[in-house]
Amino acid sequence: MPLEIVTVPCLSDNYAFLMRDGASGTAALVDAPEAAPIRAALDARGWSLDLILITHHHGDHIEGVEELRAAHGAQVVGAKADAHRLPPLDRAVSEGDEVAVGESRGRVLDVSGHTIGHIAYHFADDRAVFSADSLMALGCGRVFEGTHAMMWESLSKFRAMDPETLVCSGHEYTEANARFCLTIEPDNADLQARAAAVKAARARGEATVPSRLSEELATNSFLRACEPALKAAIGMEGADDAAVFAEVRRRKDRF
Ligand code: ZN
Ligand code: FE
């Protein structure tokens, strides 16, 4: 039975995700920007909450953890490397560890860069990855704590996944990201089409997250730093992938 995934808009532009394994009825939450909309989403479906999977320490991803833990008795999982600045963890995990949601299995990936200790949860059999502020729709998180080389290494982990993977990321920043990516690869036809679709979706008030990894591979300037076409577009033919990523990220910081 496939993992059911529900996107829960929180705060002004955050997304939390609920997932439920239908066979066992086990449900997990990825990130808790605030409790109220998540409790409402659970109540509307009559779901319990067994697990809270934290991606990183920023307040807009953990503010609701304690209320949800208290209300539902959920077990809280987060990065061992971040345990000192996360709500108390019932389980501290590192790269390669497995998280079970009923019969579904997620693997923990270290995707440091935005913060040191940022993790993603990859449910390979279900073709879903919960990436929060690492890989985003047409973007990636700002590099606050790590290095550009570290963030590029993190993004490379997503490049290796099945292109059909659903990328469940943490924010609705896609429209602005699309405008930026068009400054990097103005002639990328897939990007032009996606930017138009994103603009139309936002005008209708629709979410543009989650997205498909295949779309990100074709259009996301950060994830495409190793592509000869992108390097050529910014006059960095033959340059090192991480150096190209760093240049794209610096341009976005000034955008
Ligand atoms: Zn963040
Ligand atoms: Fe965030």
What are the salient characteristics of this protein?
Metallo-beta-lactamase, Chain A, 6-stranded mixed β-sheet, 14 strands, globular, binds zinc ion
Structure notes:
The chain has 255 residues and is of the alpha/beta class. The chain has a single domain (3-254), classed as Metallo-beta-lactamase, Chain A. The chain is built from nine helices and 14 strands. It is globular. Fe (iii) ion is lined by residues 58, 60-61, 133, 170-171.
In short:
The chain is α/β, with parallel strands linked by helices and 255 residues long. 35% of the residues lie in helices and 25% in strands.
Blueprint (SSEs and pairs):
Blueprint: E1 3-10, E2 14-21, E3 26-30, H1 35-45, E4 51-53, H2 59-62, H3 65-72, E5 75-79, E6 91-93, E7 98-101, E8 104-110, E9 119-123, E10 128-132, E11 135-136, E12 139-140, H4 148-159, E13 166-169, H5 174-184, H6 189-203, E14 211-212, H7 213-219, H8 228-233, H9 241-254
Helix pairs in contact: 4-9, 5-6
Q: What sort of overall outline do the alpha carbons produce when their principal axes are compared? A: globular
Ranges where pLDDT stays below 50 over 5 or more residues in a row are: none
Biggest sheet character: 6 strands, mixed
Q: What is the topology, as strand order, of the major beta sheet?
A: 1-2-3-4-5-6
Annotated CATH topology: Metallo-beta-lactamase, Chain A
